[in-house]
Amino acid sequence: MLNGVAAGSGYALMGIAMVIIYKTSEVVNFAQGEMALASVFFTYLILQNYGIPFVYAMPLAALFAVFVGCVLEFAVLRRARRQTTLGMIIVTIGLEMILMGLVSWKFGADHKVMPFPITEFDSIWLGGFYVTTLEAVTFSVVWAVMLGLFVFYRYTRLGLIMKATQQNRSAAKLMGVRTNRVLMFTWGLSSLVGCIAGLLLAPRSMEPFMMWDPMLKGFAGAVVGGMTSIPGAVFGAYFIGVVENLFGRYASMEFKSAVAFALIVIVLCVKPSGIFSRHYVKKV
Amino acid sequence: MRTHILLASFALFFLIACMGFPAFAEEGVTDTEIHIGQWGPQTGPAAAWGSVARGTGVLFEMINEKGGIHGRKIIYHTFNDAYNPAQTLAGVKQLQESVGIFAWVGGVGTAPGMAVKDYLMERKVPWISPASGSMHWIDPPQKYLFATYPLYKMEAKALCRYSVEILGKNRIAIAYQNDDYGANGLKGAKEELAKHGLTLVAQVPVDTGEGDLRPHAAKLKQSDADTVLLWVAPKHAIALLGAAKAMKYDPQWMSTSTCSDYPYLYDISKGLWEGVITTFFGDGPDSFGPLMREYKAAYDKFAAPGERWGTFFTAGFGFAEPLVEALHRCGRDLSRERLVEELEKLQYFRGVMGRISFAPFDPDDPMCRQGQTEVFIAKCVEDGDMVQLTDWLKID
Amino acid sequence: MDMERDHYEDVAFFTSRLGVFWFVILASGLLLFPFIASNYLKTYYIYVANCIAVNVIAAIGLNLLVGCTGQISLGHAGFFAAGAYATAALTGKLGAPFLPALLIAASLSALLGFLLGLPALRLEGPYLSIATLGFGLTITQIIGKIQYLGARQGLHAPDLVIGPFNLNSDAEKYYLFAAMAFAACLFARNLMKTRVGRAFIAIRDSDVAASTMGVNLMIYKTLAFAVSAFFAGLAGGLYAFVLGYIQPDTFNLLMSIMFLAMIVVGGLGSISGAVAGAVLLTWLDLTLRNVLDVPVLGDWLKSLSQSYFSITGVSNIQYIVFGSIMVLIMLFEPLGLHGIWLRTRQYWKARSDRGRRG
Predict the structure, then answer these.
(1) Using an 8 Å Cβ cutoff, are B82 and C249 in contact?
(2) Where does the UniProt annotation place the signal sequence (chain B) (predicted)?
């Protein structure tokens, strides 16, 4: 159970990152994982090759992540706005391939070791289970990010503007909101959250394919949660983590992912737009 | 009407062109060149195995620098198949039909290899040392296919025998990858343990794309095994060790030659790999045999910057050794039939791999095409150094 | 637009004599292709053509679902796998003749499609994509468990025998595959002009409106899934014989994504678009490994990797090129390749009209 929550935390951050973008622009961003990957390898590069201390590397990585997100929005997604939803998915898949290609071209396929101050081997005994320090940190980061986003959307001017853009883009535009900029910032923000997820996953295993699995599970979690709700994404991610771990442990290891997905389908059949979002009746 | 005439003449033209096609002496060999091919995944999730094909390339460069084989230089053609069988077949066909490859060597992966096996065998193109230890290569045996990679089954048997007979363990579990590699390991372990009247206390499958190994580690811990065989890819082996370590679970870990790159694994597991026992099918990259030192010199000279001197890379040398040896023995008069004859005559040939012997083709004896049947067992110690625990073990 | 007086006019194969002309050219080109390829090029190109034919069938099927009915599927590799395994097992293990086996396999796949279509009745967009993704994952897991199908060790496809003919070479297979692909195009084209096809399009445009107009959503949505899965199963059955050996891992998520990319890059909702997309992406997939051998570009890329990237990872340029082509097509032509074709046609028409006037 706790193992599942621990695994879910990694997915949760990826889920949140996807929700941030989907909420604002209805784009399912398949490049999310690789955006995080780019930031993680950037961090590795500055830590390893330029010997920048960890304390300074973190803000630099965050800046880089925001930069990547903004550039992608500005250079690609903005130009593709005439596209259908599906077209947008294909665009993000294309971006995913480009980013993945660039990272593996630069760093090769071998595993890397990220110099990270928190080790994943030390653990605390917690009510019958071991929880590693890294897992504990990840867990608290998820809540911190969730809280931070809540405060951001609720109380800051920019957050309010973003919410307004989500609800009705043309109305927001008429009110003098520069929606293009808001979208760009959304991508930056989402990339930042993804980067945090990537950095917390990197000590476990760091290679060009490390983000594929967390991204898919995060996406699945976000879908269970309703795709537009941040707490929903976190809940969904924990749901997947827990189901996989429990089923894997007590029933069949092979079918653990399949069962998690089957459960998702059942949940979705009952609540077609996920657990945490209100179901809108479509207008004709 | 005019178009009809035009088309008819076109058709006629092509029909005429179809006739008359020249036959040539031996494909892929000229007076000065021998064309050898290999595929390997340079991109995608299996890209770490790409260094096998690059290692073979360095070996050929080394040979060419010394003047080639009987006056012929080896022209090496390698391509990236991204571990996708459809792409493997595409690349093999293209090279075979445009360049004309004399023989293929290595080639990572069971699925990619199986996609091209029939094509190569129909054309009677020799293929030496597929880089995976599958039963598919030798069962049924093919006249032109020479396997050297020890069967995964043998490695499992060797490890089980060692842990039961020498270490006196009796609670053995396995974590196996959900594919041909893992399935063979599982089978070997079951067979060997049955001989000692034991069974596996846990069998934990690991999916190739799996990202979270915690449930697997928990399951192994639950079974309370004292020895765990890791029939998985290196990254999963490391993740399992890490997860188990966090759960304060510390059995004797054992793994295959796939995970025998000690310095690398020691490094990326941050030292956890210390104490792990694995099989080896060839000398370690840092062993001090004269041949290995020669290869190391070639690596220093020819390898691309950033290339790592590791087990996969040296395996690329090792896989090509029987081919090179047979080419030497063929002499100036080189044909595919001659090559097959010379390969069949190899007896206890020793390069950097274990001893390799083939036998004349016998459709009822798979082992006539399984060159290497021995492995040795070693242990990883501090700093990724290796301590050899046994001599070469011959496993049937 | 001309008024149509008759349904047959709508489904008529040729609309003009020019059409007949181009059709003859195309058909004879396709027929003669193996001769040209095996003599002037290599049989390798016939193999590539076979792969293309397989993907064309799958893409047309997916297009019926995604482009025409507006449902999304990230699990088509699952149907593809079901078709491949069923065909290989029926012919190889049970000795069934090829064509019936292929049809049974495709029908089985269609049945799976029908079943997956049931939850799809309530889902859409990302929700549906996750559900179908899970399906694709589960199918390969289940196949991997079945010893009879070779489990994880994979399964051999036997020789391709139809009646007295043993289709061994790529060229022989080519005729079968090309005919199948052609039949698939024709079937899809005509299907879209029937009541069923119109119902699909009505659902895509607005399912609520369609249901108020009397389209039975339950029947037509599941039907779309079933038909689409039938095509995928058919393609899968052929694929087993292209490679001769299949393994569960081959039918992964990447494959589903590729199918989806084919129809979107080609142009959603149009059959010629699906064909064009399948041709382009399959060709890129199978030949991009040669990108480093392109005369000037290849050397430049190599020196670039030497100084800024790594030589060992140089093959990843394939990914970058592939991704860039996808992104660029989507950026500059929202309708994909089909849109480019429409625009070119428009341009020439306008030109010739101007010429006639002037």
Answers:
(1) no
(2) 1-25
Find all residues with CB under 8 Å of C313, minimum gap 6, and list them: A104, A105, A106, A107, A108, A109, B42, B43, B47, C305
A109–B215 C-beta distance less than 8 A: no
Least confident range from A54-68, A133-147, C182-196, C333-347: namely C333-347
Using CA atoms, how far apart are residues A267 and A223, in angstroms rounded to an integer?
A: 10
ipTM rounded to 2 decimals: 0.85
What value does the mean pLDDT take over residues C190-213? 85
With CB atoms and an 8 Å threshold, state whether C137 touches A104: no
Residues of B in contact with C153 (CB under 8 A): 134-136, 180, 183
Q: Which chain B residues touch C315 with a CB distance below 8 Å?
A: 42-43, 50, 80
pTM metric for this prediction: 0.85
Distance between C305 CA and the closest CA of chain A, angstroms: 8
Count the neighbouring beta carbons within 10 Å of the beta carbon of residue A180.
Answer: 14
> What phi and psi, each to the nearest 5 degrees, are found at residue A260?
-60, -45
Chains touching chain C, criterion 3+ CB pairs below 8 Å = A, B
Strand residues in B353-395 grouped as ranges (E): 374-380, 386-388, 393-394
- Does the pLDDT of residue B1 top 70, yes or no? no
Is A272 in Cβ contact with C127 (below 8 Å)? yes
In the complex, which subunits touch A with 3 or more CB pairs below 8 angstroms?
B, C
Superfamily of domain B152-280+377-394: Response regulator (3.40.50.2300)
Q: Following DSSP, what letter does each residue of A195-223 receive, concatenated?
A: HHHHHHHTTT-BSTTTTHHHHHHHHHHHH
- Rounded distance between C-alpha atoms, residue A171 and residue A163, angstroms: 12
| Closest-CA residue to A265 (of C137, B206, C251) | C137
pLDDT of residue A127: 66
Residues of B in contact with C278 (CB under 8 A): none
Residue A273 identity (one-letter amino acid): S
Task: Classify domain C33-357 by CATH architecture.
Answer: Orthogonal Bundle (1.10)
Chain B residues with CB under 8 Å of C313 CB are: 42-43, 47
Those residues with Cβ within 8 angstroms of residue C355's Cβ, 6 or more apart along the chain or in another chain: none
* Contact between residue A105 and residue C341 where contact means Cβ atoms under 8 Å apart: no
**Side-chain half-sphere exposure of A87, counting CA atoms within 13 A:** 25
CB-nearest to B308 from A110, A204, A213 is: A110
The C-alpha of A111 sits at a distance from chain B's nearest C-alpha, in angstroms, of 7
**Could you give the residue ranges of the DSSP H alpha helices within C146-252?**
170-191, 195-205, 207-212, 217-243
Nearest to B210 by CA among A203, A204, A251: A204
Q: Using the beta-carbon criterion (under 8 Å), do C289 and B81 form an inter-chain contact?
A: yes
CB atoms within 10 A of CB A168: 11
Identify whether the C-beta of residue A265 lies closer than 8 Å to the C-beta of residue A247. no
Q: Which one is the CATH code of B33-150+288-361: 3.30.450.40, 3.40.50.10190, 3.40.50.2300, 3.30.70.260?
A: 3.40.50.2300
